[in-house]
# Entry
Amino acid sequence: MNTIRYRISSITRSIISTSRRHLATALAGLALVVPATQALAAYQEGYLAPTQGWRIMQPDYPSSHALDAISFEWDYFMIHSDTFNGIVGYVLANPRHKAAPLDWALLPLGNNVGIVGEIPGQKPIANYVNMGLDNSNVNGTLRGMTSTGSNGQYIDYRAMPGGGPNGVDALHLRGRTPDFEWDLIVTQDMADRDWQRPITGAFTTAFGSDIGVISPSEFWNVDMIWPRTNVKGWVKTLGNNQVIQVNGKGYRENSWGRYMLSVDGWDFMVFGEDSSSGVMGAFQTYHKSAIMDNLDISFYDQGQLQTIRYETKDKELGWYHPDWKWDGEANSCVPTNTKIRAKNGMYTVDLDVAIGNRQRPMLTNMTVGTSIFFIQEHFPTITGTIRRANGSVVKTFTARAGGEFARTKDIAPWHSGLWCNLRGDTHHKAAMP
# Structure
């Protein structure tokens, strides 16, 4: 048995190592001909135009660039409820089908959908389905994606300008994958706080021009369009045809750019209280970036709304993962909790994110670029304390959260928990302020 395990482990190492070499070789030619240009495009902030079309399909998106083949975009939704927790992501990759000979190396072409669902008390289930460019409909005018696939699978995602309750903008999320079918209406919650976004910069688009691995011309944008959402509808688990009614909260993000994500990765976490006067926040860090690390938070202090962006580059934000474990599906060490501290001249925020086993990787082996990469979806609980500069407590709170940890898979077939913790002591962290 040990001999068999060793042979399988050797094969796994060989596949991942060979895939990395092939991917690097395939992209090297593109990288040599790409100049180091600054990314451009002046887009309207998402919260001002939440139903606008796909960003990488806009007329002023630099689609003639030599690296347009790695242009992609996702619309990402979290669902937090008493009956179902999950994420749904609609992904548009290389819509102009550039560099077709490299399809095997890049993100799966065209329209994609991913879903990770957790029924309370059960292990999360993850699906990722590619439906290509045929039988699909996407554009730069109105947000949406429709595709039909095999075995009754489909994507039907549509913007509803003014079509939500009381005439608000809404998004209609529908789809079917091997394990789930869903029909959900998403609208913005806590919209009354939007007025502070342009004043403080919190919950506005974060732009990264230093994430590139194959070229300085890579760039990425993260737009937290609706940091807090209302989510209503149903999800069906196809294994037993159980229909689960959903009435909860969530999050909507739109991210896009030219980015070879499979050789980078990120830490990410979003949280919010259910009360209209509650705390909401979002934390993100990209492993290779020094300018995309931030914590945005919104709360009330004695009736006054405070909306703040803390950034690592200003020495206002730090984090680390105290505990790690080996995840065989992800073939990587993954964190089981996170400590975050943000501090400026007015407020200190301390957050304790308890992930535990409420996590599952989203995986696909459709291409080399995705086979060496994983996105670990989290469904944690967060406890936090906000203090004024004089040490007095504004609020302590507990909230539902969602998050991710993503990176390239490990070449090794296995590491002990001790090894994972030792490595975690020196990676994926920033000094506490």
